Amino acid sequence: MAGTWIRLAHAELSSAGDTINTGDFTPKDNLKIVANLPSDGVLDNCKLFVGTGGSIDTGSNYAFRHSTEGAGDGTNGSMSGYWFTVTNVDAGVMLTAEIINNSGREKLIQSHAVLAATGAGTAPQRAEVVGKWVNTSGQINTIRITNSGTGDFEAGSYITVWGASDDVVTDEKDALTDVEVGTRYEETDTRKIYRRASAGTFTSTDYTTSNFTAVGSTVAITSNSAVSTNTPSNTANRVYATIPSLKSTDAWSCDFQLYVTEDATNDYHTIAFCTNSDAFNTSGQNHVSVQTQGGGYQRFVLNGRIGGSNSETTTSNSTRSLNTNYYITLSSDGANTARMRIWTNSNRTGDPAQDKTLSIANIGTLTTIMHGIRNATSSPYEWSGTVSNVSLTNPAKWVERGSA
Questions:
Q1: How far is it, in rounded angstroms, from Cα 156 to Cα 139?
Q2: Is the pTM of this model over 0.85?
Q3: What is the mean pLDDT of the chain?
Q4: How far apart are the C-alpha atoms of 265 and 305, rounded to whole Å?
């Protein structure tokens, strides 16, 4: 798949002539050519030559299939050059061509040429050619166009080459780094104006009783942490707060520390990001969360609820112990995938002990952080532990502000 297109070369004749050379350019996996070739007389056997290492290949290393005005195909093999007009023309040519420029393969070429004709009563001709250059030991990095007719390419005739590799950059501004908040960006093609918006964060310093709402008495905000003590599962006890909105296209990340002292239930959401502040598993709420499961499991769960349906991926049984610090990162890649990584060292160095992913397509915009039990009625009921050192980061982004 072609990535971002950039102009690689442009060459223009300052006086009439029969040859235009691009000179050397940086090779790319995909090439596009546009040439405007007005003439002062008859053009004939107009050819495209290519080369690698800065050297044009004029040998018999080209083959092509051609058609003029949609007539039957003609074929030519072991030719010197790729003919893109096939017939003669006395009013100039407009050429467009595309080349697949893989180093270890023959270079495939397709072109369309408009063979000009003067006067409103005469329609131009068309020439369609497909072909190849048989070199398999390098990429094209220089191109030449020639004419063998009695006329010349006029002064101002030109060739322009664009290229793209497979390193896809979907938006130039998103590829920029170290951009200060408040920076203005204007798209020259659309005239749209964007400004760099400040990053959205929510950290342990935001864990205050004034920011959080408590439902029930067994989950509380204490010392910048969410602390649960024997939370019964049939009461939907929880605490929640509003956070900077996390859109489904945002790539966000949340670090937190977990310490569990009692876990008899299967349904405690140690941390969850939700579309509203309703009790867990109620109609209309979507969320992504990290759960712990006790009983006979003793494991972690990456849980998602979207459109009334729950999905989850779990670690193996007996991978979570009581009275142990776990350092967890819950994140979204902004492309419909959530990820849970768990370390036992506070620096989160080395490979995580647990690493799980889950699709969260169509989850919607997450506006609430929540800790607590699922709204259930089955026993067992107890969960005790602490979630601390929370650090949610939603990186700075470009926000459209109108147009110029």
A1: 28
A2: no
A3: 89
A4: 19
Between 18-27, 219-228, 387-396, the lowest mean confidence (pLDDT) is in 387-396
pLDDT tens digits for range 331-378:
999 889 999 999 999 999 999 999 999 999 999 999 999 998 775 555
Q: Which two tokens stand for residue 63?
A: 């083959």
Domains and CATH numbers, the chain: 6-164 (2.60.120), 200-400 (2.60.120.200)
Q: Is 25 helix (H, G, I), strand (E, B) or coil?
A: coil
Instruction: Assess contact for 187 and 79: CB atoms under 8 A.
Output: no
The fraction of the chain above a pLDDT of 90, given in percent, is 64
Q: Which strands form 238-246's sheet, in the order they lie side by side?
A: 213-215, 238-246, 366-373, 268-274, 287-293, 299-306, 309-314
Confidence band of 231 (pLDDT split at 50, 70, 90)? low
Residues 62, 296: Cα–Cα separation, whole Å = 71
User: Tokens in use for 105?
Assistant: 């393969």
3-state secondary structure of 206: helix
pLDDT band (50, 70, 90) for residue 3: low
**Distance in angstroms (rounded) separating the CA atoms of residues 82 and 48:** 5
DSSP string, 294-317: TTTT-EEEEEEEETTEEEEEEPPT
CB 393 within 8 A of CB 250: no
Residue type, 39: S
Q: Would you say 99 and 140 are in contact if contact means Cβ atoms under 8 Å apart?
A: yes
Write the single-letter amino acid at 401.
R
